[in-house]
Amino acid sequence: MPCSDTTSRIRVRLDEEERVRSVSFRKVTCGRNIGGDSLLSRACVGLSVAEIVEKDGEEFRRNLEIVDVDEGFLFHLEWDALQAALARYTGDDDHVDPRKYKVASIISDGDGVEITVVILPPAELPPIAPCSKSSSSD
What we know:
The protein has 138 residues and is an alpha+beta fold. Helices cover 29% and strands 28% of the residues.
């Protein structure tokens, strides 16, 4: 049985005009980080918070030409986390599950704002084969 350590984190850095400077998404599972080089960071840099929250993730997915299933899955996780982080930041978070998305910090300095949101795993995880097991039958 795999471990239940599946917490994720998204960190969004905004400039003083609330335009995205960077997005960092990390998913921790089995003690390993997945992510870091955010797909969305490349697509969102320079966009305002308002421009991002009113867009559909599929538009970003098409623009990034994501076709790989694994990359698409990670993109979906990252997009959902980004939308939740910005909604929590703006206070327009009626649709955000507060049991899943927890604001870890919002830090403002002379250069802008850094928002960190922790994404908690579901209470019940479906059965998943451990990473260390091979699925091939010899």
